[in-house]
Design brief:
alpha/beta; 6 helices
């Protein structure tokens, strides 16, 4: 289950007053603004655009393209988990304060491919938990 982002919103997540997690992006917030706030706070941010994605293969392809996965990404669930728990490919110019992934059009993806969305959500949740307590935590916002 996905939690609603507390009242302090994205700024609270970026300052640590809200613990990293998998949250629903408030309807009053845009993915662009959330990513910009993250970048301003020294976090690495990426937008995963899921419009028109209707199956596992398309989801994995979009992850590879939008997130800039390394060439070794194997286009399967295990490889997705590996990429999200080894973020060496996402580090540029040193260690960021954290990692923010904004998954846009999540509800449409979930409706089109409920089984794939369920597996993807589990992998995203596991990645967030893996990075919790690390110097650079990860958070995921479903928009």
């Amino acid at each position: 289950m996905t939690s609603q982002l507390p009242a302090s919103g994205v700024p609270g997540l970026l300052t640590g007053s809200v613990p990293p997690g998998l949250y629903r992006l408030p309807v009053t917030e845009t993915p662009e603004h959330a990513a910009a706030l993250a970048a301003d706070a020294g976090w690495r941010a990426a937008r995963l655009r899921l419009d028109g994605i209707g199956d596992k293969a398309a989801f994995l392809d979009r992850c590879a393209a939008d997130l800039g996965f390394p060439g070794w990404f194997g286009h399967n669930w295990d490889a997705l988990a590996d990429c999200l728990t080894d973020l060496s490919w996402w580090r540029k110019d040193g260690e960021p304060h954290g990692y923010l992934l904004v998954a846009e059009d999540w509800d449409a993806f979930h409706k089109a491919a409920p089984e794939a969305a369920s597996v993807a959500r589990t992998i995203l949740t596991d990645a967030v938990e893996y990075w919790t307590g690390q110097q650079s935590p990860m958070a995921v916002l479903l928009a």
